[in-house]
């Protein structure tokens, strides 16, 4: 029975399905509210599926499924199966490192320490923490508050009573309560461990109240040393709480999820808020192997956090609704107030991870980074060839004076400045951007054809439909309209204009494709404006001096060499002018200056 035939026997219930290839290897794991309806969507006519999904479906040789009681069970089972089978076409969740945990060891007189290894031996683990500094800061706070042991000795009644283990320096400086010599009872030690666990869970406020009460009680009994001890502990907790506090403390327990990025690569951040303070935070990278809806990627992210942290908070904040219903949880998109601020803070963390990932890839794997940009641009524009060689044109003129154009060249996403070209407009009078664009594009590519140099795969025109049409006129004259892919980039909304398409293309403002197109366009604008300013400056200097009766080009050059500028000539003394250009020319300049005044 083929996989398509098996679909007819699937139940209309929530569950998890697995696609296998001809070798029996799991290539995709998915979840569904309705197994039959969801799986059948993969076996539609190929023209109704996107490219990546068609490739996966072509490799499906078998189908398996598991029915579960709820969507939340499906979410967790899907996550566990993905980790088990590592399917080729599932969303890949990457964090790039092993995160630290805080361990409360499963032994008599437990230890509390930071570790990156989770050992299933009955110990309790809290985390993971996004920063080892955060984890170490918490353990340092706990040791300062409760004087817990840090040594690795195994303690029994016999070892404690025999005195075989000598107290270490931590005991003598007050950092350890002295398990080794029986200075603290097991019940008292376990009580301190329970309080430490409360801090790790984010339950700080009750402890602050407890320390405050004991401080006041000791002070009332004139036990000022004990009162000072509780005051110091209270201060340590309050300082820790103040550093973590981000919103109104009345927000008791909330989980926050955010996603940012493009279609294939997204970056997610999770934050757990307890009494207005962040007690856990984690960022992950999500890579889609087939086209996935943002809601499905958010569900995958929530499932991963579910598997890492256990049960989620009752209230969950998201930027948009996930693809699955989470029974027993209030999932909503905040629109205002402190909860919206929490979502924005989470998004900032996701954006920070995205920026770091891009910088790291560009630094560590620059060739691969540029190749990805080129491939993404090719896909976004629907090109047949990789746009390795890109050229961009821009016109510059002010009220029709000194019209110029520029052409900048990028190869492998990097500027090739030796190939940049300036054009002084020859055949157009006045401010006619369209005619100017036709002229410069024709001149550029007729020259490349004449010199038998390689043509670009992509040409970007700074402007909308009018400028693009003018460039295409020149390419048609040269017979290049089918050899060079040409687009316009209109600056107002950064829309991409493609020939023959009545609707502009709006690329994701965060996409690498739009960024590289904007970089090329802005570079062409900068290069053209610089040349235009230089031409205007030369024209102004020329008209200011050569319009003086009796002053020619050679005299103008001599004056500028001596006095550097027109203003320098205006402020020069009569003696200086005579010494530079002679009496006759000096008299002409003096007459011009007097008439100007």
Sheet bearing the most strands, described? 7 strands, mixed
| CATH level-3 fold name of the domain at 376-535 | Nucleotidyltransferase, domain 5
Helical amount:
40-55%
The CATH homologous superfamily of the domain at 376-535 is named UvrC, RNAse H endonuclease domain
Low-confidence stretches: none
Mind telling me which CATH architecture of the domain at 376-535 this is?
2-Layer Sandwich
N- to C-terminal distance: 100 Å
What's the total number of strands?
A: 19
Please identify the top-level CATH class of the domain at 376-535: Alpha Beta
Count of helical stretches: 20
| Average pLDDT over all residues | 82
Structural class, judged by helices and strands?
A: alpha+beta
Net shape = flat
Portion in strands: 15-25%
Q: How large, in whole angstroms, is the Cα Rg?
A: 36 Å
């Amino acid at each position: 029975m083929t996989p398509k035939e098996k679909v007819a026997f699937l139940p209309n219930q929530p569950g998890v399905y697995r696609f296998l290839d001809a070798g029996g290897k799991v290539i995709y794991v998915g979840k569904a509210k309705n197994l039959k309806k969801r799986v059948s969507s993969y076996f539609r006519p190929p023209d109704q599926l996107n490219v990546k999904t068609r490739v996966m479906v072509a490799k499906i040789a078998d189908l398996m499924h598991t029915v579960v009681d709820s969507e939340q069970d499906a979410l967790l089972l899907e996550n566990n199966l993905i980790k088990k089978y590592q399917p080729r076409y599932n969303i890949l969740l990457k964090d790039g490192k092993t995160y630290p945990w805080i361990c409360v060891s499963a032994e008599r007189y437990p230890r509390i320490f930071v570790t990156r290894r989770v050992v299933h031996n009955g110990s309790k683990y809290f985390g993971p923490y996004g920063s080892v500094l955060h984890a170490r800061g918490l353990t340092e706070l706990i040791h300062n508050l409760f004087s817990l042991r840090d040594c690795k000795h195994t303690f029994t009644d016999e070892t404690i009573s025999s005195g075989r283990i000598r107290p270490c320096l931590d005991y003598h400086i007050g950092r350890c309560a002295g398990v080794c010599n029986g200075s603290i009872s097991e019940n008292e030690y376990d009580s301190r461990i329970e309080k430490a666990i409360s801090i790790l869970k984010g339950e700080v406020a009750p402890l602050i109240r407890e320390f405050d009460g004991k401080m006041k009680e000791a002070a009332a009994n004139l036990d000022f040393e004990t009162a000072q001890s509780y005051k110091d502990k209270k201060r340590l907790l309050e300082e820790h709480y103040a550093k973590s506090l981000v919103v109104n403390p009345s927000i008791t327990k909330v989980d926050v999820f955010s996603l940012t990025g493009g279609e294939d690569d997204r970056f997610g951040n999770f934050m757990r808020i307890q009494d207005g303070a962040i007690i856990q935070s984690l960022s992950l990278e999500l890579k889609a192997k087939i086209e996935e809806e943002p809601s499905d990627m958010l569900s995958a992210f929530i499932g991963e956090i579910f598997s890492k942290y256990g049960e989620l908070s009752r209230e969950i904040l998201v930027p948009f609704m996930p693809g699955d219903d989470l029974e027993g949880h209030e999932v909503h998109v905040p629109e205002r107030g402190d909860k919206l601020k929490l979502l924005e803070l989470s998004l900032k963390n996701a954006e920070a991870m995205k920026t770091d990932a891009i910088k790291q890839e560009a630094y560590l794997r620059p060739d691969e980074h540029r190749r990805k940009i080129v491939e993404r641009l090719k896909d976004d524009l629907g090109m047949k060839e990789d746009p390795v060689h890109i050229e961009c044109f821009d016109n510059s003129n002010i009220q029709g004076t000194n019209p110029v154009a520029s052409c900048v060249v990028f190869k492998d996403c990097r500027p090739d400045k030796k190939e940049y070209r300036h054009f002084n407009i020859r055949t157009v009078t006045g401010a006619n951007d369209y005619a100017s664009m036709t002229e410069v594009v024709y001149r550029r590519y007729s020259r490349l054809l004449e010199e038998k140099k390689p043509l670009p795969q992509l040409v970007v025109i700074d402007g909308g439909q009018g400028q693009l049409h003018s460039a295409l006129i020149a390419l048609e004259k040269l017979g290049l309209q089918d050899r060079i892919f040409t687009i316009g980039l209109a600056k107002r909304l950064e829309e991409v204009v493609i020939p023959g398409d009545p609707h502009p293309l709006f690329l994701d403002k965060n996409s690498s494709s739009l960024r590289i197109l904007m970089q090329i366009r802005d570079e062409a604008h900068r290069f053209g404006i610089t040349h235009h300013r230089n031409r205007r400056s030369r024209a102004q200097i020329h008209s200011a001096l050569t319009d003086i009766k009796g002053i020619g080009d050679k005299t103008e050059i001599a004056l500028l060499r001596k006095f550097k500028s027109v203003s320098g000539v205006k402020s020069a003394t009569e003696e200086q002018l005579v010494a530079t250009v002679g009496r006759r020319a000096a008299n002409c300049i003096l007459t011009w200056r007097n008439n100007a005044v």
